[in-house]
Write a structure and sequence with these properties.
Blueprint (H helix, E strand, L loop, with lengths): L1 E2 L7 E7 L2 E6 L10 H16 L6 E6 L4 E3 L4 H4 L4 H19 L5 E5 L2 E3 L1 H7 L3 E5 L3 E3 L13 H9 L1 H10 L3 E2 H7 L4 E3 L4 H13 L3 H14 L4 H16 L2 H11 L10
Parallel strand pairs: 3-4, 4-6, 5-7, 6-8, 7-9, 8-11
Antiparallel strand pairs: 1-2, 2-3, 9-10
Helix pairs in contact: 1-3, 4-5, 5-6, 9-10
Length: 267
């Protein structure tokens, strides 16, 4: 893997395959819980990818180690915080969530272990998820006297539906990767040893497609899901029209007729 030239304290950013950026939460000694520094670093990476993705076409998000994807907010860091300090820190987390959910590139989650609290929210913020067989999920905030505040009440509900989200969030009870798949949060469950290779296979398939079309499809899905059907269909046509004038649209049709693999440029 080629390392990103920027050095981070709590995450790693690598390029495991052409046009794919792998972001790894790297605090295994703390179950990859995110502290203020991790939130700042994630924000910086995702905002930079939004502003200038370079040749990156797909982002994969995972955790270091085999036991945890992300245990949520670091409660040791939060222990003894004043209300003012808590609010200030949470504003950093809020910016992080906006950066992650606002990424125009496809974001695929590889959940390699426990995704609890804010870790479950971070997973829910991905466009779709693959999970290791031993992975577990939970929204544990109500057991701590708070509620999900990094998108959990909105993102999880969109994935699993209102009634299931009510059960998950109000009980705080953990659930398995298989349950997550049955409920619509996870797309595919696989052995831990195969997780990253399976995710990379899908990421590579996405990266091979026309970049403008992929981004516009993601935009139409994400934006249209909260609209009435008629408005969503109109939004879809606007996104579709942005692909018609691209060189990639012409290349895709030419490649089909010439019976060859297209070479998409992202233009």
């Amino acid at each position: 893997m080629a390392e990103n030239p920027i050095s981070f304290d709590t995450i790693t950013v690598t390029v495991p395959a052409p046009q794919i950026r792998l972001v790894t939460l790297n605090r295994p000694e703390a179950a990859n819980a995110f502290n203020t520094r991790m939130a700042e670093e994630l924000t910086g990476v995702f905002e930079a990818l939004d502003l200038d993705p370079g040749d990156t076409r797909v982002v994969v998000l995972t955790g270091a180690g085999e036991t945890a994807f992300c245990a949520g907010g670091d409660l040791k860091e939060r222990h003894g915080m004043s209300d003012e300090a808590w609010f200030a820190q949470h504003r950093v987390y809020e910016r992080m969530v906006r950066a992650v959910t606002g990424l125009p590139l496809p974001l695929v989650g590889a959940v390699n272990g426990a995704a609890y609290g804010g870790g479950c929210e971070l997973a829910s913020a991905c466009d779709f998820l693959y999970a290791a067989e031993h992975a577990r999920f939970a929204q544990t905030e109500v057991t701590l006297g708070i509620i999900p505040g990094a998108g959990g009440t909105q993102l999880l509900t969109r994935a699993v539906g209102e009634r299931r989200a009510q059960e998950i969030i109000l009980s705080g009870k953990p659930f398995s990767a298989q349950q997550a798949a049955e409920w619509g949060l996870v797309n595919h469950v696989c052995p831990a040893a195969e997780l990253l290779s399976v995710v990379m296979e899908t990421a590579s398939a996405i990266a091979a497609n026309a970049p403008v079309a992929v981004r516009q499809a993601k935009h139409a899905i994400r934006s249209g899901v909260g609209m009435p059907l008629a408005a969503g269909l109109n939004f879809e046509i606007e996104a579709y029209n942005r692909t018609v004038t691209t060189a990639d649209r012409r290349e895709g049709v030419a490649a089909f007729n010439e019976k060859r693999k297209p070479g998409f440029s992202g233009r």
